[in-house]
Amino acid sequence: MRILITGGRGMLGRTLVRHWQDSHDLLVADLPEVDITRPDSLAAVFDAFRPQLVVHCAAMTNVDACESDRDRAYLLNAQGTANVAQSAAHAGARLFAISTDYVFSGDRPGDRDEGDPTAPNTVYGATKLAGEDAVRALCPDHVIARIAWLYGAGGPSFVHTMVRLAKEDPTRTLKVVDDQFGNPTSTDAVADALTAFIARPDLRGTFHLTCEGVISWCGFTREILRLAGFPQVNVTPCTTEEFPRPAPRPNFSALSKAKLAANNLPSMPPWQDALARFIAAEWPQ
Ligand SMILES: NC(=O)c1ccc[n+]([C@@H]2O[C@H](COP(=O)([O-])OP(=O)(O)OC[C@H]3O[C@@H](n4cnc5c(N)ncnc54)[C@H](OP(=O)(O)O)[C@@H]3O)[C@@H](O)[C@H]2O)c1
What is the pTM of this model? Predict the structure, then answer.
């Protein structure tokens, strides 16, 4: 299949390329050659490559920077996504658009379903939601895949930061937020899930693709350091108030995957298994 991957040199895009390069004809559409904010740039690459599937990863992903540069966040995440959706529809291609748990407010415990009301608390979340709405309006043959707490080969990610800090000083104490909960998710797990969607052209709509199981950032850190061989690093829990950030982080961002089973799709792996596989590959001991 001819698959065009926007943002294909980003963290998720690189993993998709690794998973699919031997089985599909891939085109990486990323800056500087392709700019999703410019319809003429997209038209040129769509006309030349004639994709059958578009996987839209390109985005402004720095959530704090989105707060201070709202215009650019809307241009990339809302208008850019609308441009990609329009191009995919015009080409008759299927579209997988990558979205986020930040479309929810994250202010109550429990796993969010795909149909739960959205209420973003950040510019990043609002712009990604506007992108989702554009995909629904412009490209009927779409899958919106919401992911969260992502890490993958090469980073940057929370996992890479924690391992770097531990390597710098294995005797240090790390203070980590213990009142925000979510589903840590590897790009490999997302790639496996999207591979299953490729085999199911009948599926359309919004799906949650995070790993199974819920943990706090503090608990996640303890498992990262245990698996990476730094059990002596002291991890101390702290509260969100002790770490104020420009973009408020959701306290509860776990996503329900019941819809996968309901559609006879493979389940997502437990976050501990995905993390163990990732750390063994990224930092072999
Ligand atoms: N990372 C997470 O924790 C997380 C969580 C939930 C959802 N997501 C979503 O998952 C998707 C992939 O995330 P990621 O972490 O792989 O992102 P990433 O590493 O930041 O990659 C995004 C890629 O898009 C490129 N890009 C930026 N502006 C572009 C433009 N105008 N035209 C074409 N390409 C452009 C970037 O290039 P430059 O580097 O040159 O800017 C980068 O290569 C995104 O849609 C994100 O919103 C991520």
Answer: 0.98
